[in-house]
Amino acid sequence: MLDIQFVRDNPELVAEKSKQKGYDVDVTQLLGFDKERRELLQQVEELRQNRNSLSSETKGKKPNDEQIEQGRKLRDELGDLEHKLAAIEQEFTLLLKSVPNMPLDNVPIGASEDENQEIKKVGEPTKFDFEPKTHWEIGESKDWIDKKRAAKVTGARFAYLKGDIVKLQFAIIQFVMTNLSDSSFLDDVIKANNLKVSNKPFTPVLPPYFVRTEVYDAMDRLEPRDDRYKLDQDELWLQGSAEHVLGSMHLKEDILYEDLPLRYLGYATSFRREAGTYGKDSEGIFRMHQFDKLEMESITDGITGLEEHKFLIAIQERLMQKLGIPYRLLEKCTADIGKPNAKGVDIDAWLPGQNQYRETHTADYMTDYQARRLNLLCRQRTTIPEVNTDAAPIRVTSSSHVSLAHTNDATAFALGRTMIAIIENFQTKDGNVKIPEALQPYMGGRSEI
Description:
Elements: H1 4-9, H2 11-20, H3 27-57, H4 65-97, E1 117-122, H5 135-141, E2 145-146, H6 147-153, E3 160-161, H7 164-180, H8 183-192, E4 203-205, E5 210-212, H9 213-218, E6 229-231, E7 236-238, H10 243-246, E8 254-256, E9 262-271, E10 290-300, H11 305-323, E11 327-331, E12 343-351, E13 356-365, H12 369-374, E14 377-379, E15 402-404, E16 406-414, H13 415-425
């Protein structure tokens, strides 16, 4: 959530930028509760000081009747005020949590994803001397994709993946882990994009698939709840993407600046109800209730947060280029970046079977918005770095040695959609699929399936 001091100092800006993201926030009401909350806190503190003074006066001796009556009054008044404060705190917190993160100034203003702005296209849409098939036509003919049997077992939007497509998925996983664990690969990405970030490798992680309600809420990824699966008996949710459990891994921790950045590559099977998409992308494996992803999560300080965002996007592009998949890069508009995000970029891969670009990657920069509720802090032994206001427009007033961390997440590969792009772009006339050269070492040297 936002720093309340930022809201106090910029009420009109907060209301305006919230509206740009599609949130009608009542900033006046929020600040009203904030004012009442601070006044009650001051009164409660005064009563507590009076109670402590009275306790000191009577320490080691029996209180007289006047002191007993005074103590009773203080107890009753304090109880009433603490009850009022708790109610005000609850309303204040709900209102503050409803305020989205502020989009950076260079995020295009738009009312829907239709107003996302294309930054560039890389590679030409694949051309064939035959009519290209869809991934599901190829997958079903090869017995790689079996949704009919899955429907008998689990219902719609599930699939059995079999044979060579499974080998292809694990080849992609090994390809990504090998490159993101390699400092020389990261060095090449950094130099090619003129970035000022560390070449520290990513740590592979197999995270838990479940997350507690309060932690999911602190990440501000729980909503929309009707798109999540919940285990009511245990008050646990199935995560909707690996970053939901990677970003929260350091909940309530202090991280030394010299240990930053913390970079993780999480592999997880994720779950979404895909509420509101009835009839949309019902063929094939593009939009499933259960899907596998490789996700990058990065924790930095406020200086390097924005540069890290650019770095993650550069990694996404390099991996796509290594596979030879044509794509376009989109700057997401204010309405499409998401509530906790300050900036977002998508990659859409060209899918010949659909004759259009479709989203395969996203990269999200949250500044300190998630870290504030996670209580995720950066600590330095000596002096705190000077804050770059361009990279960290939302700041918390900190002590001389502590500040809030900044978080980034980005798709390395959504495995189902990546395999769709490979199958459709590298299909042959006889219905086989050529393996991208970068993946062949992980497929036993095979060049075609």
